[in-house]
Predict the structure.
Amino acid sequence: MHIIDSNAAMAHVLATTLNPWLRRRLLLHRVQHQEVGCDIGELGPILLIEPGDTLAAVQTAAGANVTSGWEYHQVDYGWHELVFVLSDDGAGAVLFIPDRDDMDADLLGIIRAATEGG
């Protein structure tokens, strides 16, 4: 799992991310943070989930239960983007989960539920 919780972490991931769709989405999040005057991670982490990551590890990194309650879901180019807003100030977490068979079964269940309208 890549945990993007600072401007430096975002710069590192952007410099090493080869997937064009994921790169564009990350750039959009960076711009959105800049527009509201927040540093990356100030409102919560952006998590890039990888095979081998468990639901428990993702929830620990996100600081929240991520099995339901997302505010936004988008699926494109084999990735699911789930945005969780956990407080009135906009704090939460953003998860990028690849739709792959080798992912944790519980994480696949979350993205399947999101796809079905959760």
Notes: The CA atoms of residues 68 and 118 lie 7 Å apart. The helical segments are 7-16, 20-35, 55-62, 105-115.
